[in-house]
Design a protein that fits this description.
Chain lengths: ~240, ~160
């Protein structure tokens, strides 16, 4: 379960204060797949950073699985993140000097956990990269790199998966593979997924679409509601 | 859709009776195109008349069996070999678009917007269907859905183009 209560985030630039999030109230049930859409600069990615404990709100509260994030020290947040949250980014963010295998197990090493080779091989198979253990990121296509990033995000079996434009750099075919993969893990592992996207096809996988505008949630709609398609047609091109 | 050729393909490996072919067809298309028994039997009659299938007799439940003939196999291969021509400009919505211009239809923008909504509904439905195909590992049908989604993507781009016109 994820809850944000009146979350605000301001950034100082010189004398100016820029208010990126202006009071976000969002509740996401366990196992829900939520897509966040909205114009660039509307605060979508900032919210994801806050949910992932990479940043703290200026005001308001973030509660993940019953833990209040802003009450934790940075170290506690880092540990919480490693154990509960998987992150997938638009530009993959793999470590270029590490192999596929080393990238995938990196979160385990960081957490001082033992690597189960069985789990790694199972994940490699699930993301269709069996036999690529020793390859380096630059030897892989964009779609393959993103699949490594997904495997890395899932190695700790997190309850929550946060994805920031996971298909933003991929063509339709590769996007479709990545979304199918996320959707497969979502149904198999009942993870909560929050995905920021500009892509209507990606949003089509979600149970609920939330529209951000100027740092607040403007509106939202659930898949089962009649105006789901009308909503997407208005806000996504 | 060629029911005739689908039945020939279903009979390619094994003989079958009408009901078996109906369920086989529905499995092939994942229930997306319903086919009534009447259509199956009338198609089988025509195939038999044209010597593309023949009947070796009846099964133990007295159901008429069919097998594909050499002529039928040739017909199937020829059909697979031929490319399919598409009538790219004969879409119903294209005609609406032309006619809306002709009569200076005031609701034209709304008409386009509604069409876009309908297509997004199709995208949502196909995405759900694709999830099911992934789960049941129906690769060919999944690729068909991918194709339909790509068409819809192009259609929506075009609708956005004419909306801005």
């Amino acid at each position: 379960m994820i809850e944000t209560i009146g979350v605000k985030r301001e950034f100082r630039t010189g004398k100016d204060t820029v208010s990126v999030l202006k009071g976000v109230n969002l509740f996401v049930n366990k196992g829900e797949f939520v897509a966040i859409i909205g114009p660039s600069g509307s605060g979508k990615s900032t919210l994801l950073q806050l949910l992932g404990g990479l940043d703290v709100p200026t005001e308001g509260s973030i509660i993940l699985n019953g833990s209040t994030m802003e009450a934790k020290t940075e170290k506690q947040r880092t540990i919480f993140r490693r154990r509960n949250i998987g992150f997938v980014f638009q530009n993959y963010q793999l470590l270029p000097t590490l192999t596929v295998h080393e990238n995938i197990v990196f979160p385990l090493h960081a957490d001082g956990k033992k690597v189960s080779e069985y789990d790694v091989q199972k994940l490699l198979k699930a993301v269709d990269l069996k036999g690529r253990d020793k390859w380096y990121p630059h030897e892989l296509s964009g779609g393959q790199q993103q699949r490594v990033a997904i495997a890395r995000a899932l190695i700790n079996q997190p309850d929550i998966l946060l994805a920031d434009e996971p298909t933003g750099n991929l063509d339709r075919r590769r996007s479709s593979d990545i979304l199918d993969l996320l959707s497969k893990f979502h149904s198999e592992r009942k993870q909560t997924i929050i995905m920021v996207t500009h892509d209507m096809f990606a949003a089509g996988y979600a149970d609920r679409v939330v529209l951000f505008k100027d740092g607040v949630i403007e509106t939202e709609v659930r898949r089962e509601e009649d105006d789901y398609a009308a909503f997407l047609s208005r806000f996504m091109a | 859709m060629s029911v005739k050729h689908s039945l020939l393909a279903l009979l390619y490996e094994n003989p079958g009776h009408g009901y078996e072919l109906k369920t086989g067809f529905e499995r092939l298309v994942q229930g997306m195109w319903p086919l009534n028994a009447g259509q199956v039997y009338s198609t089988l009659d025509r195939l038999e008349r044209d010597k593309l299938v023949e009947s070796p007799g009846y099964d133990e439940k007295d159901r008429k069996l069919y097998v594909i003939t050499e002529l039928g196999k040739r017909e199937l291969w020829d059909w697979l070999k031929q490319p399919v021509a598409r009538s790219l400009l004969k879409d119903e919505f294209y005609f609406k678009y032309l006619c809306a211009d002709l009569v200076d239809y005031e609701e034209k923008q709304n008409m386009i917007q509604k069409q876009k909504e309908t297509m997004i509904k199709d995208i949502l439905a196909l995405t759900q269907l694709k999830k099911q195909m992934n789960e049941s590992q129906q690769y060919s049908m999944k690729m068909l859905i991918e194709g339909a989604l790509l068409h819809l993507e192009a259609d929506i781009k075009w609708l956005d183009m004419i909306l801005q016109d």
